[in-house]
Amino acid sequence: MPNFSDAMAPGAMTLGALWRQTAARLVTLGGGRLGRQEAAREARLLIGYAMGLAPTDVIAYPERLCRTAEIDLVGSFLERRGAGEPLSRIVGQREFWSLPFKVSDQTLDPRPDSETLVQAATDRLRGGKSVKTTPLKFLDLGTGSGCLLLALLSEWPAAYGLGIDVSLGAITTARENAQALKLFSRADFVVSSWGAALAPTWDIVICNPPYIPRHSLGVLSREVQFDPERALDGGPDGLQAYRDLVPSAGYLIGEKGFLVLEIGMNQGDDVVALARAAGLELVDRRPDLSGIERCLVFGAANRA
Ligand code: GLN
Predict the structure, then answer these.
(1) Whose CA is nearest to atom 1 of ligand 1?
(2) What pTM does this model have?
(3) Closest residue to atom 10 of ligand 1, CA basis
(4) Crossing angle, helix 268-277 and helix 240-253, to 10 degrees?
(5) HSE (CB half, 13 Å, CA atoms) of 218?
(6) SS (H, E, C) 135-150
(7) What is the pLDDT of residues 49-66, one digit of tens each?
């Protein structure tokens, strides 16, 4: 592939020209999947990240001249995008629940579909409770970037949250996110396996576990292949994490709390059966943005 800067008169390119050309390359790389507006947005983010500028500055200073090293860095980002790497992995950041989250190679890339869980949890709690003053307790199992827990804490300003993950790298990223979002005084993050050694009682236990059947890991879409395998691998049938966590999560919500789970395609009935066997009752099931059932909410069968 010719060097990106060679094709563009090195040293003489303005920021405005770099933006236009990067957006055009992204449209080509996307093979028609990326619209012009989305390509212009991605180009702004990639160039801003490469040059240490806010994305808005990329538009604000079109006459600024770019250095060859900056142009080449943008070129290398374009190659990575061309190989299917998500934009969020390149710039290390993803928006979730309208909040910016840092992502790392130890964390799942937060998906818009997972916002369904935040909405379901919030709807479940809202009845009769004051959003501003109720000191709720949220537990996030397999917190990754911390996106589910921190989104919930952003909605409930008197709540406390605990995020658990087996990965120290993920916990470090989640802590950084809590700090950046100014939620750190209400959030703790610890390395542990699911809810082992915790005591009840949590108002919400929320969890997006690994749920991809192991035999499907090799045939995932290109973007998903950049996620850490530990965050995806749900064992031989995709349900292993639910078997491991649902009984203890049932204990952790006590008689009043709710367990909010993300599930993979067609896993609803199996997970409902598993949860029933652990003394839980289904209270809500919701589709994601594509209409695929993505979220199950349970309470104790003998609710107080
Ligand atoms: N959301 C990922 C996917 O769509 C899976 C994440 C998970 O296993 N929890 O493939």
Answers:
(1) 111
(2) 0.91
(3) 224
(4) 50
(5) 1
(6) CCEEEEECCCCCHHHH
(7) 999 999 889 999 999 999
